[in-house]
What does this fold into?
Amino acid sequence: MFSVPIARPRAFSGIQPTADSLHLGNYLGALKQWVELQDSYDCIYSVVDLHALTVGPDPESLRQRVRATAAQFLAAGVDPERSILFVQSEVPQHTQLTWLLNCVTGFGEAGRMTQFKDKAAKLGDQAVTVGLFDYPVLMAADILLYDAELVPVGEDQRQHLELSRTLAARLNSRFGEGAAVVPEALIVKATAKIYDLQEPTAKMSKTGHPSGIIELLDDPKVIAKRIKSAVTDSGAEVTWDPAAKPGVANLLSIYSALTGQPIEQIVDDYQGKLYGHLKSDLAEVVIAALSPFRERTALYLADPGQLDRILSTGAERAEDIADRVYRRIATRFGLGQAERSR
Ligand code: AQP
It folds into this structure.
């Protein structure tokens, strides 16, 4: 008897190469789920360098950060034998599909994106580009290009994901069912938003102040110092109260996500102890989790040939899918003479 391979649903996600190191929010909010999903989905993961262009990076540092980001995906456990790992700009269909989606996206609809409004307010009118405004449409193109059913992201991407769903549904209603797959977000509640250590009501962000961030490639001494000086709240008792004690809640969430222990159990363990005890133990937990990660990243970066091979194979495999899906959608728009098969 022949065994027929069972097609698995696809998952897609990306991270911008906007810093030398990813941070704990990127890991717990997204990357950790990416690795786990490989058991049940065909996964496609991208270093989204076109998105990074929206904030005008220095070209040389962008080039280095693309490689450093890819090395961190691999070090976290993205397996290039099972998943497709590629750099977004290597697959030209991302920008091609963006144009088509631009032509079905309302100007007001794009203007309602809160991340754009926040970033635009920080940058000021003169520095805001059309690219930054169009970021969510490029993100929709990233997802629809692979007929992805699931998109693992953090809470900050929920509104962008909703726009991707709206645009996919719009293609289906305008051009008939089967034009696009409507994706679902995978947002894991417990780690959907890891907060800044100094400002525990704001998300930990690559562009935040360094003292509020735990970078995955940070030296253990830096990690210990950052955690020990994290802002905690008035009082001394370790309790789970995100509204009244956001700083302690953030530390507990990180502890729980890295050890797999339920929050209630951790809270129980710290009865009669002080915030300082929790911080020292958490520093050890984080250092133990990140030290092997740092070593694996260094190994990937020390072998540029291997990284190049992984990324170029990934781009070829990604383009193979992207080309077919792009042609299918472009044909629905009335472009091209016919749907070609490859
Ligand atoms: N603090 C966070 N908690 C949980 N998830 C987070 N993510 C980001 N910050 C947190 C998730 O990480 C993925 C990659 O994000 P990105 O680099 O593409 O863009 P971002 O969301 O804008 O990340 P940053 O770190 O905040 O970058 P900057 O400072 O450049 O804006 C996404 O899935 C995101 O949800």
About this structure: The first strand starts at residue 10 and ends at 15. The mean pLDDT is 95. Residues 15-16, 18, 25-26, 29-30, 153-154, 156-157, 193-194, 203-207 surround adenosine-5'-tetraphosphate (CB under 6 Å). The chain has 13 helices and five strands.
